[in-house]
Amino acid sequence: MVTAREPESALALAEDVLARALRVGATEAEVLVVAGDSALTRFANSEIHQNVAERSVTINLRHVVGRRIAVVSTGKVDPDGLRTLVHRAAAIARSCEELEDWSGLPGPIIGTGAVTGRTASTWADGTAEATPEFRAEGVRAVIAAADAAGVMAYGAFSNDAEAIAVANSAGIRAAEGRTSAQLLTVQMSPDGGTGYAESVSMNATTIDAGAIGREAATKARASDRPVTVPAGDYPVVLEEYAVVDITDQLGYVGFNALSVQEGRSFAEPGRRIGSNLVTIVDDGSDQHGLPMSFDYEGVPKQRVTLVEGGICRDVVYDSQTAARGGRASTGHGLPAPNPWGPFPLNAVMSAGTTSREELIGGLERGLLVTRFHYTNVVHPKLAIITGMTRDGTFLVEGGKIVGPVRNLRYTQSYLDALAGVSAVSVERKTVRGFLGAAVVPALRIDGWTFTGVTEF
Fold it and tell me: How confident is the model at residue 6 (pLDDT cuts 50, 70, 90)?
């Protein structure tokens, strides 16, 4: 039986499928097995209304015949299911067009050996063993904070444990257990205010649910009866929940080797794209985030400096983009098939020396933004993004918050935003992105272009 607690069992399954694929004619093959235990407690109107749990095993087979590549997945791990998987993959591969620049599957990096087991750096028993009662206690603390402020709490508390295993015909063998937990809440005031807070950790027992509840409740009450401010350029303080969108979008449009090779990226080694206060790395070993030892191709993750003191340094690679670029993979491959290229799943932005109070105190007249939503790319080469503020936007005058404002739409180059960073908070938070999790500080930025306002 394959379980999240036994990555070795996931690796054994991967090796079994690999042998089957080679027997039916694959010249190369790669098998990714993900065995996960996920649980979630959801609440609304300050009451728990859903508690669910799921156990799953997914096998992803990349079957190669010469330069013809098929990718097939299944959740059926019985002998019939595995037999069907490999025969279907073989049939599809024979009918695929050849990939002219196919460079082959990655092999093990000399000196690293196989990665197996549940390491302290990627696994926490406190998350894997979290019970419905444990999550309910966390939710109780969030709701208690909401009740004290006279607001309603909505949100979810989740915990995930998974075994990841990769085996390929080039000799890669990698398996480990990984855990993650997230508590998020949106709280709503009867007078129209909303507030947001979130905590993400490898270890669920380190999440301070009461603090998350109080943060969101305070923000909800503070944003009661917002007023309209005109669109235009404002200096801003972005809280960490907004900053994560910057690291996510820049990773998507710029800091991946595929976008560079296709001419869509702004990234050029030595190019200045930010103030000297901005340093961003991707580091799968950083214990403040959600660490991982290897990527979904089984390649060990390397620490990659993306921006150093505002200067572009490097981008991340998977095996295919590395071969095209004459580089080694940095361990940033996503599961096949992958049309998006490699992605920095573990972005870390360096902390600064400024307190949160001093960040706001540096605004003569500007806006404090809690987070963004519905963000989309307008121009990838210029990293122009459009989106909206949400769950707490405030006018600041004379270094003091004077009141809430209605949400605004923005269209902003995130490169111009990095260039305008004038202060970075000493505190950082771990925030879930759309693929991974980032460790980010709050930022003060000298100019942000808001293009529209909402009346409701």
Answer: very high
Distance CA 89, CA 93 (A): 6
Q: What is the pLDDT of residue 115?
A: 54
In sequence order, the β-bridge partners of residue 73 are: 60
Cα-Cα-Cα-Cα torsion 42, 46, 47, 49, nearest 10 degrees, comes to -30
Distance, in Å, from the CA atom of 440 to the CA atom of 350, rounded to the nearest integer, reads: 7
Kindly report the number of other CB atoms within 10 A of residue 282's CB atom.
30
171 vs 116: CA distance, rounded Å? 14
DSSP string covering 387-430: EEEEEEEEEEETTEEEEEB--EEEEEEHHHHHHTEEEEEEEEEE
Residue partners of 428: CB distance under 8 A and separation at least 6: 240, 288, 349, 351, 439, 440, 441
pLDDT, one tens digit per residue, over 183-205 is 999 999 999 999 999 999 999 99
Model confidence over 210-242: pLDDT tens digits? 999 999 999 999 999 999 999 999 999 999 999
DSSP 272: B
3-state SS assignment for residue 376: strand
For residues 83 and 78, what is the distance between their CA atoms, to the nearest angstrom?
Answer: 9
- The pLDDT tens digits of the residues spanning 438-454 come to 999 999 999 999 999 88
Entry field: residues in the chain: 456
pTM for the structure as a whole: 0.95
Q: Determine the Cα–Cα distance for residues 192 and 14; give it in Å rounded to an integer.
A: 52
Task: Write phi, then psi, for 255 (nearest 5 degrees).
Answer: -90, 25
By the 8 A CB rule, do 76 and 85 touch?
yes
Which residues contact residue 289 at a Cβ distance below 8 angstroms, ignoring those fewer than 6 apart?
Answer: 202, 283, 346, 348, 430, 436, 437, 438, 439
Dihedral of CA atoms 177, 212, 387, 268 in degrees, nearest 10, equals -50
Q: Which two tokens stand for residue 179?
A: 């855990």
Distance between CA atoms of residues 197 and 419, nearest Å: 27
